[in-house]
Amino acid sequence: MAERWQFWIDRGGTFTDIVARPPGGRLLTHKLLSENPERYRDAAVQGIRELLGLAPGAPVPADAIEAVKMGTTVATNALLERKGERTVLAITRGFGDALRIGYQNRPKLFVRRIELPSLLYERVIEVGERIGARGEVYRPLDAAGAERDLRAAFDAGIRAVAIVLVHGYRFPQHETALAELARRIGFPQVSVSHVVSPLMKLVSRGDTTVVDAYLSPILRRYVAQVERELAGDGAGPRLQFMQSSGGLTDAHRFQGKDAILSGPAGGIVGAVEVSRLAGFDRIIGFDMGGTSTDVTHWAGEYERAFVTEVAGVRLRAPMMQIHTVAAGGGSICTFDGARFRVGPESAGANPGPASYRRGGPLAVTDCNVMVGKLDPGLFPRVFGRHGDEPLDADVVRAKFAALAAAVAQATGLARTPEEIADGFLKIAVENMANAIKHISVERGYDVTEYTLCCFGGAGGQHACAVADALGMTRVFIHPLAGVLSAYGMGLADVRALRQQAVEARLDAGALVTVEPLYAALEAAARGEIAAQGVAAERIGATRTLHLKYEGTDTTLEVPAGNAVAPIVAEFEARYARQYGFLMPGRPLVIEAAAVEAVGSTQSAGDERPAFAPRPGPLAPLRIKRVFTGGACREANVYAREDLRPGDLIDGPAVIREPNATTVIEPGWRATLTRRDHLVAERVVAVERAH
To answer: How many CB atoms lie within 10 A of CB 411?
Structure first.
C-alpha cells in the first residue's frame, strides 16, 4: 500500500495545532482558532481539509489518510462548564450522600463559608444491597427495587448511570448485576466502578465512576462527528486519542475518565522526546498556550498522579503529573481600582484577546503587542471575519491608553501604556514561576539544575523571563515548539494500564501471591494493545507496586521485583525525597498492583537537517523598539529560517518562528545547534535584591 498522510492534532482551548506527515515529504504545520463558527464547525477537521487542499465542504478522501492522532479539550471543557450528560448515581443504601460529603477537607483554611462544587449527578438511587470487606453478603441485591428506580430515572430523560457499591471494587457481583439491568432498561452509558477504577476508597472511586459516566457520552458524540467528516465514502482512517496517562488509544476505547489531560499529555511526550534527543536529561516542561500554562517535571521517567482533583472533582485515574495555572495568552488583564490582575478568566478563542478583532478584552497577548514583543506583521494572519487579517495593534493601543488614564485617575500615578502592559506581564510571569515551584522546589528538586523546555504558542514570548524568576539559566526551544503538543501526539506510544487492589503487607509471601495477578493484568493490557493493530514484538510491559506505610492513605508507585529489600529501599528513597522523613519500623502495605503495556510506534528520529548556504552573515529583518526590563530598547528581529548552526543572538531580540514568537531578553544569548534546536543561556548574572 502506498504511503499515506498522518495528522497529529492538539485541539486546545484557543488554538488547534496540526502537524501533518505527507507521503514522502517533510512535516507540515498548521494552526487555527479552535472556535470560528463563521468559518467551520470543527477546527481539527478544517485543518485537515486545508492541508489536503480541499474546497470547503468537499469530502475528505479517507483512502489518502493513514491515521489521525488527537488530543482534545472536549471532555475538560464539559467538566469545567458542567455540560456533560445527565447522570444518575446508583450507590449502596445508606451512602447516598457519601460523594457529596467527601473527605470534608477545607480547601482554604480560613474561609468560613465553603462553596462546594456542583455535583455531576442529578439523582441518587440508593440500592438495597451490602457486601462486606471479606465478601460476605450481608444484604442480597434488591433487584426489583433497583429496576423500579432505574426505570424512573430513564423515563425522566437520564441516559447515563454510574454504579458505585461499597466494596464493589473487590466483590463485583452486585455491580455486574446492576449494570446488566441498566443496559436492559436502555441506558446507553453504564459506568461501573470495578471496571472504571478497581481500587479501594469509596469516595475517589465513586467520583471517578461518575466522571466517566458524565463525560464519556460527550466524547462518544465528538468521536462520531469526527469519524463522519473523515469517512468520506469509505470506512475512514484510523482515529486515535491521547489519554491523560500519556498514551494513545483507539477512539472507541477513549473514556471520560482518561480524557481530562488529553492535550497537555501530548505536550509532555513531545517535550521529553525532543529534549532527550537534544541531550537534556532533566527538564521542566513549560507549555504556555492561549488559555492556560501547563508545567511538568521530568528527570528520566514520566511522573504520574493517581489521585487528582480537577474542577472540584476527585479522580482516581492515572494522569501525567501536570500542574496547570490560568495564565495563557488569552488570560484577561484587569484593573480593579487598586491593583492589576491577570486571569483566571480567559478570553479563549471567541472572542479572544482584543487584538483578535472580535471585540475581546485586553489579555496577555495584547500586553506583548503593546510592549513590542509581538509584531502583528510577523504573526499568522488568521483573524477577522474571513480568517485572513493580522492582529489589530490599533485597538490594543487605544485600550491601553484608556486604561492608563483610568489608573492615573484612580491612583494619582501616571504610567505609560507600555509600563502598564509590562506590569501585567510581570504578574503573569510570577504566576507561571510559582506553578513551576509547585512541581519542583516544593517536591525537593533544585530547579536551577534543570533546563526549561519551552513550548506552546505563547511559551517563547515569556521563557527567558520565567527562567529568570526561577534562577534557571538555560532554555531549550525546539523548531516545532509552537505546535509541540500536536507533535507529541505523533511520537506517543499506544498504552494500556491495568490495576488491581491487593491490600496486603509487603513480604516475600505477598510477592509470591501477587505474581498470578500480574500475569492476568499483563495479558489483558497486552491484549488491548494488540487489538489496536500493534505487532506483538513491539509491545513491552512494566510492573509496579503501589506502596504505603501501614496506617497512612497516600501511596507511592515503585517498580515491582522478586525481593523485598530492593523494593523497600526504592520506596524509602522516593518517600524521603518527597516528604523529607521516613517511618522506620512501620510495615509497608501493597495497596495495588499495576501493569502498563506499551506498544511503540514512532520515535522523534535523529535526523540532522540540511541547511542551505546563507549569503553573508546573519542580518536582522528589522530593528524595532521593545519595552522590556523597565525601559525601551532596540531589539533585532530575526527569522528562524535565516539562522544557521553556531549563530549567536544577544538579547534583546525577537525571533519569528513559523508557529510562535521567541523573545530573547537582555542578558541572554541564544544559539542554534546542528539539529536546528535553539538554546538560550543567561550570560549576564541577574542582580537580585537581598
So the answer is: 13
Taking each continuous run of H as one helix and of E as one strand, the counts in the chain are: 15, 34
| C-alpha cell read off for 268 | 509532555
Assess contact for 30 and 20: CB atoms under 8 A.
Answer: yes
| Total residues belonging to the chain | 690
Please report where in the chains the cell 523497600 appears, as a residue. Answer: 568
Report which of 486, 432, 593, 465 is spatially closest to residue 21, judged by C-alpha positions. 486
Query: How far apart are alpha carbons 166 and 143 in whole angstroms?
Result: 16
Cell 535584591 belongs to which residue?
689
Query: What is the number of alpha carbons within 13 Å of residue 10 lying toward its C-beta?
Result: 35
One-letter amino acid for residue 686 of the chain: V
Residue 486 in this model has a pLDDT that exceeds 70: yes
| Gyration radius of the chain's alpha carbons | 26
Cα 595 to Cα 169, 217, 243, 569, 686: the distances in Å are: 17, 27, 16, 21, 47
pLDDT, one tens digit per residue, over 71-93 is: 888 887 788 778 889 999 999 99
Phi, psi of 166, deg, nearest 5:
-60, 130
**Beta strands of 120-231 (E only): which ranges?**
123-127, 130-131, 137-139, 160-164, 189-192
Q: How many CA atoms lie within 13 A of 93 on its CB side?
A: 13
Per-residue confidence (pLDDT) for residue 138, from 0 to 100:
92
Best CA proximity match to 135, nearest among 170, 163, 176, 95 = 170
Three-state secondary structure of 153-197? HHHCCCCEEEEECCCCCCCCHHHHHHHHHHHHHCCCEEEEHHHHC
What single-letter DSSP state applies at residue 93?
T
Q: Which amino acid is at 406?
A: A
Strands 622-628 and 556-559: unpaired
Instruction: Using the structure block, give the residue that is written with the C-alpha cell 514512532.
Output: 602
The three cell numbers of residue 393 are 495593534
pLDDT in tens, 600-637: 876 655 566 778 888 888 888 889 898 988 889 999 99
Find how far residue 244's CA is from the centre of its chain. Answer: 7
Strand ranges inside 447-579, DSSP E: 451-455, 474-477, 494-505, 539-549, 556-559
Residue 307 burial by Cβ neighbours in a 10 Å radius (0-12, 13-18, 19+): middle
Q: What is the DSSP letter of 362?
A: P
